[in-house]
Specification:
Layout: H1 2-20, E1 27-29, E2 33-38, E3 41-46, H2 53-61, E4 66-68, E5 101-102, E6 120-122, H3 137-142, E7 144-147, H4 164-187, H5 192-199, H6 203-231, H7 234-252, H8 257-285, H9 291-308, H10 310-318, H11 326-345, H12 351-366, E8 371-372, H13 382-399, H14 401-422, H15 424-432, H16 436-441, H17 444-452, H18 457-473, H19 486-491, H20 494-503, H21 513-540, H22 545-599, H23 601-606, E9 621-622
Parallel strand pairs: 7-8
Antiparallel strand pairs: 1-2, 1-4, 2-3, 5-9, 6-7
Helix pairs in contact: 1-12, 4-8, 4-9, 4-11, 6-8, 6-13, 6-22, 7-8, 7-11, 8-9, 8-22, 9-17, 9-21, 13-14, 13-22, 14-21, 14-22, 17-21, 20-21, 20-22, 21-22
Length: 644
């Protein structure tokens, strides 16, 4: 619904611009300075240093290229110090559209800072026109491609320029979709005892529905995430949420354990989209420095799902007045409650798709087919682009060391998390004599730690700002992405400490408050590690955040599903103490990985600051022909102020 309304608003804006007939600008501002086009030549002027408030904000937040007319003030943004280079896929670009390019700025991101593409790029001349005598200005003009882009802070179509209320609403709503999916991964486990009797199976077989659900969520991410980078977020959100609800309904109606396993696996496959796109949508609407605040909000909402789900699940399973199948019905009801506002109110957030809509309306209104969005500036069919998008997560996983390292790192973390959750029955019911409902309530100890992690955010923000100023002082345009790992440095030591603590105090002769307090530290450390890992990768692969994060989700959830099967036999074989000691040792490895990523020289030597070489391209201003022009795709809003 919101996508339709957005499309209509874009049409109205372009019609308004067409009627007022805004002129094209004469210059382009970047963070390096001003580039002036005059008589077929580009003249550059460095930006003069300034000490006012706006200059201080620019030094702290960075800059984004934008267009200026006769009088546009240099503006700042918080999302350009990512150390990225342009990321249009070079393999898909028309090889004929390049001779000797003159780069104005190629260090921004297609997905969220596509407004670097503000220039006319000349089309290749047909063979019968490629003569030295060709001087017709109109012919030259018609052999240009006008790259449609955003118009800076005045352009409300850019998701980064939406109001704070709208962006926060989008963040919470998309996070709630992830909440529902991970709620479903935990509430199913509360019915193990009952389903074992109903289906007459072994404990290992009864763990399969949850394990297959997690594996399906991981496998589905490598399909749904890349598709969203071709079609947009909303065309993927809504159908997959509906598919998740239908297959979860099938699990609730299943007559055999095999039917339940298959339906839960397919529910996980469709549920992968909300789980992965929630994080990608954050990258769409928030800048680099703003994500220091918003990523923890997303993570807290996401982790709350599997931590509170066992409570209503345990009450439903142990209540005599309702069926155990209410663990599925509650999930479907909750998903439906979230789906309604998603359908009605969730806007499209993926910038390349918004620019495609804008370019299409410009072509329709003007009859000029030169207007092209960055997504269309490729010699590729839709099928080819879709195939390339589906291939991208695997390419990133194999070719980018930072993806491989963080995938391994988060896989260990989620294996520990789900093995730890699976051990609550052994820790509290068997060792401390808790009832099933009391054991479910004990999960709130982890939730308290998750909420307490918010206290680290102001400290992380202070450290981030300090590093930005230091990097500017060293003449470095962008700080190293390792600054995203500050939360991991705070939280990583608490995970092994809490596991060792809980493992050797979960005894009948020791108060149950001791393992409960340990679980608080576990929740705190886990959320800090998760936020740091996700934010690090999202910052490095901003335009392709969905593909990069789906690479992480593939390995971590498949491993978590496998660990869910092995957890119960492990606790029976090793006991609480040695099982949690084993997990504590693995978590210590996670801490070491965080330390290596943060301070190690070896990882910095392989750390990427852009996409893989096969996925790189620069957006250029074509020089060498008199017809080169700087293009103003359209300017909207009279509130823009132009400097004299």
């Amino acid at each position: 619904m919101q996508s339709i309304l957005q499309h209509r608003r874009i049409r109205r804006k372009i019609q308004q611009q067409f009627v007022t007939n805004h002129e094209k600008p004469s210059d382009v501002w970047t963070h390096e300075g001003r580039y002036d086009y005059h008589e077929g030549e580009i003249h550059s002027y460095p930006r003069e240093p300034a000490d006012d408030w706006a200059a201080e904000r620019r030094r702290e937040h960075g800059h984004r290229t934008f267009i200026s007319g006769p009088s546009l003030q240099p503006r700042h943004t918080a999302r350009s110090h990512l150390g990225r280079e342009g990321d249009i896929e070079g393999s898909e670009m028309d090889p004929e559209i390049s001779t000797d390019p003159h780069t104005i700025n190629a260090e921004e991101t297609l997905g969220n800072t596509a407004d670097i593409m503000v220039t006319g790029v000349e089309r290749p001349w047909p063979a019968d026109h490629a003569t030295d005598s060709e001087t017709d200005v109109e012919s030259v003009k018609r052999n240009k491609v006008i790259i449609v882009t955003f118009e800076g802070d005045c352009d409300t179509m850019d998701p980064h320029n939406w109001t704070l209320t709208r962006r926060m609403f989008t963040t919470i709503l998309t996070s709630l979709t992830g909440f529902v999916i991970f709620w479903s991964s935990a509430i199913d486990a509360t019915a193990y005892t009952t389903t074992k009797k109903v289906y007459g199976t072994t404990p290992v077989i009864q763990a399969l529905p949850t394990a297959v659900f997690l594996m399906g969520t991981g496998l589905g991410a490598v399909v749904t995430g890349p598709i969203s980078e071709v079609l947009g977020r909303n065309p993927v959100y809504i159908p997959t949420m509906i598919g998740f609800m239908l297959f979860d309904m099938g699990a609730g109606l299943s007559k055999t354990v095999a039917q339940r396993i298959v339906c839960r696996g397919l529910a996980g496959f469709f549920g992968s989209a909300p789980a992965i796109l929630a994080a990608a949508s954050l990258v769409d609407v928030w800048s680099r420095i703003e994500r220091v605040y918003t990523f923890p909000i997303f993570a807290i909402i996401l982790f709350t799902g599997p931590l509170v789900a066992p409570i209503p699940g345990a009450f439903a399973v142990n209540a005599h007045s309702v069926s155990w199948r209410w663990v599925d019905w509650m999930t479907i009801i909750l998903a439906g409650i979230v789906l309604i506002p998603v359908v009605l109110f969730l806007p499209e957030t993926y910038s390349p798709v918004l620019l495609y809509w804008k370019a299409k309306e410009l072509r329709r209104l003007t009859g000029d087919d030169r207007y092209r969005s960055p997504l269309e500036f490729r010699k590729a069919t839709f099928t080819h682009r879709l195939r390339a998008s589906l291939y991208r997560p695997f390419q990133l996983f194999v070719t980018e060391p930072i993806i491989l390292i963080h995938a391994f790192y988060l896989s260990l973390l989620f294996m520990i998390l789900y093995a730890f959750i699976a051990g609550y029955v052994s820790i509290y019911e068997l060792a401390n004599g808790f009832s099933p409902t009391s054991t479910a309530i004990a999960f709130l100890g982890i939730e308290v730690g998750v909420l307490l992690s918010a206290l680290v955010i102001p400290v992380s923000m202070w450290l981030l700002r300090r590093e930005i100023y230091r990097s500017r002082g060293r003449g470095q345009q962008r700080p190293d992405p390792e600054i995203s790992l500050y939360m991991a440095m705070f939280g990583a030591p608490f995970v092994p400490i809490s596991l060792f603590w809980m493992g050797w105090t979960a005894r009948i002769e020791i108060s149950y408050w001791s393992p409960l307090v340990a679980s608080v530290f576990f929740g705190f450390g886990t959320i800090c590690l998760f936020v740091s890992g996700y934010q690090y990768v999202a910052d490095a692969f901003e335009a392709y955040a969905a593909s990069a994060l789906s690479s992480l989700q593939l390995l971590r959830l498949v491993c978590a599903g496998g660990m869910r099967i092995a957890a119960e036999p492990m606790y029976k074989k090793l006991g609480n103490g040695w099982s949690l000691t084993l997990l504590g040792g693995i978590s210590f490895l996670c801490f070491c990985l965080s330390l290596i990523c943060f301070t190690g020289r070896g990882i910095k030597s392989v750390r990427i600051v852009g996409m893989h070489a096969g996925m790189r391209a620069e957006v250029c201003v074509h020089g060498g022909m008199e017809a080169m022009e700087i293009v103003w795709a359209f300017k909207y809003g009279d509130e823009c102020r132009y400097p004299s």
